[in-house]
Amino acid sequence: MAAVETDSKAPFSLDSYHVSEELGFILPEPLVDLPPYYKPWMDIALRVPELVQSHELRSHINQMPMLSSKFLQKHRELRLAHLALSAMTMGYVWQEGENDTVETLPCNLAVPFWEVSQRLGLPPIFTHADGVLANWRKRDPEGNLELLVSLPGGDSVRGFFLVTLLVELAAVPALRSIPTVVNGVGCGDTEAVARALENISQSMEDMTDALKLMQVHVEPAVFYGIMRIYLSGWKDNPSMPKGLVYEGVQTEAMEYSGGSAAQSSLLHCFDELLGVKHEEKSGAFLTRMRNYMPPAHKQLIQDISLQPSLRSFVQQQADERLSQAFQLCVTRLLTLRSYHINVVSRFITVPAARARQLRDQSRDLEEEMISRAPTALEERGTGGSGIMTFLKTVRDQTKDAFLPETN
Predict the structure, then answer these.
(1) Tell me: the pLDDT tens digits for 304-356?
(2) Which pLDDT value is given to residue 380?
(3) For the chain, which has fewer Cβ within 10 Å, the N-terminal or C-terminal residue?
(4) pTM for this prediction
(5) β pairing state of 145-146 and 137-138
(6) Cα–Cα dist 301/305, whole Å
(7) What residue spans of 242-381 are helical by DSSP H?
(8) At what angle do helices 320-344 and 190-211 cross, to 10 degrees?
(9) Is the domain defined by 36-400 classed in CATH 1.20.58.480?
(10) What are the domain boundaries of the chain?
């Protein structure tokens, strides 16, 4: 690849994309409380699991005062408000499971949730940006973490969101290396690109290792039988075929997908950097998931996609270290996706098969939990995708990014 003039434009940087040097896409130092005016929101949001369990959440929300969102001024205030309102919304919709859902979200919740969502550029539903990126604080000086807001599922909910947070954290060195790759390709610096790609592949390995903690901290029966429905949306969901009316916003029902790993910006960035292409159906789902990300993160993915092709640069340089570094990145991305399939099998596919077997049998407590799980989502992810087919297709398309074999 011919060297590109770099004097005519500023080097590529992460400065304008709300990416933290230390935390990547994670929101630094999320607020733990809102101004006193919003106490009615926080009082309910912090009690969602217990109010769902006692079947009182809907009545508490129906009695909640209508509050204006105009007193939320700062970005962190808006993010905490979105987290609180989204947790209340998931609890309200799914309090009675899949067989007694609601068609309308009351205006005292729907209107401020819509307003906050519009200001943030996020959809009015619980997203990865809420449950993972903006839902943490340090519990003690040692750095042990806890959630700000939870959903039904006890310790497994905490484990699920905090392990996912650790995966995001493991990716930070890779994110920091992306500008080095882009600028190195631009000026033909083979050594800088190779070194940055080696950092990225190490980071991907660390992400896979972090993901392995899911097996330690999350009970499959709890995830499948309790948690999963509270992460589910009202798009591509047979339990809510009409979607949800946001009262006071518009009279027609709206459809939004539930939280999904595809809403993390990480793998989207890696795909664009490495030139991984997805076929029409899986690609359309992944592209739609970008609308569930903070707009600055979505813009970063788009801007990486507009840079000169790294893969072409590697092929043209014919440098052994560079080629090996690129191939290792694709290998590690493939390994990460394969391990994610393993996790999904453990937490969705295997429990789904057990649930079908157990419905007509006497059961112990764990089996009871699995057998009562939502049937409508049996083979689907919380984002609404046909999960295994989708993940295996995306994984297999990653292989196409490998450089062709040379003699």
Answers:
(1) 999 999 999 999 998 999 999 999 999 999 999 999 999 999 998 888 877 76
(2) 52
(3) C
(4) 0.91
(5) antiparallel
(6) 6
(7) 265-274, 280-289, 295-305, 310-317, 320-344, 350-358, 365-371
(8) 20
(9) yes
(10) 36-400
